[in-house]
């Protein structure tokens, strides 16, 4: 869009990886260097859509607009970001803007600035780095002109109030602020100073201790980094652990805040900061929501989980957590809709992945064809080496697909169980009947449905039919093992033996061993010796490498 | 007994460890140095009672008797040992003795010597180190005087037969023997030699290849070492592995022996050698017996296992293996008697161990008392340090005791199952009723009995009563988990919940977690959300460290 060769390279990188943070930084720099004002603005917008929690870049954007005299746009940016992005930098920039605008506004102007300070402190005053704003705020109060003793008294009260608020907060400069406060009180009256300072001292001491701990805890946190979906690198894991330590510390209430709402607000603020940086970690959102729920802030919990789902529509954790809240609140329709949407999302992803695999295979085959046509032998060599690569990747993709199918099925099972609880077994059976036809289902759905019939509706006969139905689509030894285990556990040994006999020879030997072992264990423990010996003999014929004598004895001894 | 200070030290070592091989060697040496003839004889007898498979020491013993002119005793030693101990040394010593005795016996004497050679080769001729005996044998045949062409012809035939037998065996000097044979045939007739050697050559080649492999396989085997109960050291494990490699090689039939009986004899010989050295490894005996069974040598298998039980009366493997053979042969009384004897053995061991623990504790307490009386503070210090030691040891002994009780119970379970198969459920119930009163029983007997009732006699009601009965003696969380699992699996959810409720608070929290998880999993998967949430809440109250939000979700996600 900027038209330069460099920008084309940058765009290519972003097309390949939408979270290539270096490329994003280059994009901003390139827009600044060669772009028009509009292009530069566009770059900011694109950047902040991708990284909406980066206060530093919001502040840069504001600065850019102000440099171009577009106060209207600067104000719009403030409106979009201030309340969402808990950034000291951004609020500082806002306060500077308000102060500049009201420099010559007289008393009315002063009131506007004071109001802005109050708002800022309300949003960001708890931040460990908000100490500068607090200093500015107090300085601004002190600088107020007074024309009467009453006004002077009022200013003094406001100053004292501000000091007392901040020396209870573990901001990094709390010690300097306490010295200022000390000087302030002593400047007024040595007598009252002694009393007041003695009163405030324990509060300040607690905050000072906390500030020291907080400094240590914050040191490893990279608050300024641009949030990206985790790749579970060591660095990411250690960031996550550092954040967890910090959150645990906040939850331990080191300031011993008496007021429950204030205590909640402080911990909630910590979670908000964590969610900004660890934007793509579902468990952080989940824990923030759980914390809200524990304090009966149900709406807040729902909002947190909704935001999390917007950001991470594939997350099982946050989707299930929200559905569970809906179910508890008897919002059956909402829960059902959420499950359906989640399943659709997973289904679409699988379809897209399959498409891209098909396309890749087609592309590979086309290339193979071409290679073969052009230069015979050499082409064949090339093709062979590509085949290996392509196959290696295909294996990985197949594993990925299996994982996705398993995930889809898990979601379907959770929904089916929810429907049974909320709408009864009949509706749950409908869900099962519909879902089982999906091409994305694994055998686990049949196991879950059968056991639901057995445990919840006590319908062993239906359970058996469900298992039997599953056998038409799935001959996976793991499925057969589950089915066999069910038959054994329900004492249906005729059917157990029948199932074993009609499936055991259909399974590849290297995957049938668990089924063999289950049946052999059962036979050895509970059937007649001739049966046991016969099964053992067949087992040893199927797995001659294990032929070291009696399996029965080996099972017994292993059991010991 | 020898009266020396040194011998007293040796006896003390042997009293402490009956398998202190170094002390045993010292005992023999001391008897030789300072003992009377009778004392030396006594030392040999004691030594060989402890190490009855040491051919070397049997040979030394014979030599000792011969040195003292006691041919009667020497012959008695040969009679005791030759057939049992497959020792080339011992047989060589015997052959030397026979030859010496018949040196001047004329033809009759020659026949005796020849017979002795034949017997020796029958027992030991397959040994890789028997090549010397074969050479001597051939030399002895060759040295025979002849007085007619007919006799000369006979001698030639006998020599040829002997050569042909040995060049088919992988003795270490088979190459030299082949060269001798080549010279022998060529010495008779170049014409027939060519034909005969061509005929025998493939057999010899196979033996030669096998001899080379055997040389390598035998290198790590310490055949001369005195067998001791294993302590599972690295050295012992690598010996075991080396023997296993050797046995596997023999079982692969590298000589491609056509005659089944001869093939069996050779492998059986390898097992016998292994059982001599790995005397205290039940699995070697078990495999030898299994090999015999596979070739329908049932009596031989029984004899092997009986010997193994004499040597290792505590071995589960060999006892169970023999009982299984009896059961298969419908020798119910023998099987029953064997199980009873095995249980008595285990029971006695536990009683003895308990006695020795009681004695130790008494000794410790007496010492403690004394220490306290004599020197107050210092004594208390001593006592404290002993306490730690004594307690440390007691812990180990308690673990050992638990292991023994578990073993006793396993044997009781195996017997109970055998009785059910062989004599029916009623007799099995009698066994259960009697056994459950033993002080050595663990809860596993109740689980086994209950599941036997459920699976074999389909008596769910009795199964429930058995579990309930067990609960009177056992509150082990593992037992409760088994019981709960049974109730859940049999869909008895009222009783499942009742069991959970009346036991969960009796269990120490650190051991109850499995019961909690089982019940929570079940509740989350199959019960109503309110139930699940309630159990979850109680779980989180019991285990606050896990309080990271919804357990239900964590179970679901973990399941994924």
TrEMBL record, chains A, B:
Gene3D superfamilies attached to this UniProt entry: 1.25.40.1040
Principal location: nucleus
A molecular function (GO) term: mRNA binding
This protein's UniProt keywords: Nucleus, Repeat, TPR repeat
Cross-referenced PROSITE patterns: TPR
Gene Ontology BP terms: mRNA 3'-end processing
Domain Suppressor of forked: 6-549
GO cellular component entries: nucleus
Subcellular location as annotated: Nucleus
TPR repeat boundaries on the chain: 282-315
Name of this chain's protein: Suppressor of forked domain-containing protein
Species this protein is from: Syncephalis pseudoplumigaleata
